[in-house]
Write a structure and sequence with these properties.
mainly alpha, globular, EamA family transporter RarD, 13 helices, membrane, about 350 residues, EamA_dom
């Protein structure tokens, strides 16, 4: 029961995280003329401020000492911070340079990359439908590479970096706020140093005459922290395969924004590539739902069998007890009759039937 409650909570966190990430392309253009690296540095600095306030409110500090005592865990946290920095920076650059659709493709193929990592790193075994979906995904990337005239490197880097980040978070098994605090703490000094250097060079956009721009840059902490906290909380509660399914939400919103709101071009070859990706995702979804139904059916059957066995055992125990009582009464009657008529007591074998069925 507790496991089911945890998984439901993880699903809610996952829906929240991916829904917010799906709409975030609307925010980054508001930060122009700031460049992608400057925005990234502000994300790192202000995210630590946000999670620091959250930790103060929750009074959670014991994990810091525990993290510092575990070099392996600290190294994984550093790796997670580095990987998510690449993902953040490239995504901001893509959105502000008219590549929202290509960025959305990265998160469309991310479930396929997650499955591939599950096979290569975790030793998971794929079902036939999953192999077919991965094959279709590879074909889609080839079609898009031909259409773009180059590999869709933005999509591929985003997909692999975020899949790797999810895997590391799974290995870390830390709470959402704690893991984000550790990652942003490791990134804070380099990010702050870069921002101070920009200011010394007179190239910082934070101190512009428009105070609204400064507030928007500071808001990157909230925009970054809230969905990542939700994602971290989901990653430790649900399987990687479930996270892969939830990831469809973000690229659907992003793709829609890229085509409808940002009016990015969609030539036929790009539609073909995206269509192949969607076929692969539909196949993955169908296979996941079918497997889940079969698992539930097997669990229900096992539960019914266990209940039947328990009922049979109870019935057998009751019958044995009844037979024992009857045998005891028979034995007692025989003893009384022997005493009255002077007959010898019956041998112990009279009580043999009390053993019940073999």
């Amino acid at each position: 029961m507790k496991a089911q409650t945890e998984q439901r909570t993880g699903l809610l966190y996952g829906f929240g995280a991916y829904g917010m990430w799906g709409l975030v392309p609307l925010f980054w253009p508001l930060l122009k003329p700031s460049g992608a690296i400057e925005i990234l540095a502000h994300r790192m600095v202000w995210s630590l401020a946000v999670v620091g306030v959250a930790l103060l409110a929750m009074r959670r500090w014991g994990w810091i000492r525990e993290l510092l005592r575990q070099p392996r865990k600290l190294a994984l946290t550093t790796l997670a911070a580095s990987v998510i920095s690449v993902n953040w920076g490239l995504y901001i650059w893509a959105v502000n340079n008219g590549a929202v659709v290509e960025a959305s493709l990265g998160y469309f193929i991310n479930p396929l990359v997650t499955i591939a990592i599950g096979v290569l790193v975790l030793g998971e075994r794929l079902r036939r439908a999953q192999w077919a979906a991965v094959g279709i995904g590879v074909a889609a990337v080839l079609v898009l590479a031909i259409g773009y005239g180059r590999p869709p490197w933005i999509s591929l880097v985003l997909a692999f970096s975020f899949a790797a980040y999810g895997l590391i978070k799974k290995k870390l098994n830390m709470g959402g706020v704690e893991s984000l605090a550790a990652e942003t703490a490791l990134l804070f000094l380099p990010a702050l140093g870069y921002l101070l250097w920009l200011g010394a060079q007179g190239r910082s956009t934070f101190a512009l005459d428009d105070p609204g721009h400064s507030w928007l840059l500071a808001a990157t902490g909230l925009v970054t922290a809230i969905p990542l906290i939700c994602f971290g909380a989901a990653a430790i509660r649900v399987p990687l395969s479930t996270l892969g399914l939830l990831q469809y939400l973000a690229p659907v919103f992003q793709f829609g924004l890229g085509v409808v709101y940002f009016h990015e071009a969609m030539p036929p070859e790009r539609w073909t590539g995206f269509s192949l990706v969607w076929v692969a995702l539909a196949l993955l979804t169908w296979d996941a739902l079918r497997t889940a139904r079969r698992s539930r059916a097997r669990l229900a059957e096992a539960g019914a069998s266990a209940a039947t066995a328990a009922t049979a055992a109870t019935t057998a125990t009751t019958a044995t007890a009844s037979e024992a009582a009857v045998a005891a009464e028979v034995a007692g009657g025989a003893e009384v009759a022997g005493a009255v008529h002077g007959a010898p007591e019956p041998p112990p074998t009279v009580a043999t039937p009390a053993r019940g069925p073999a």
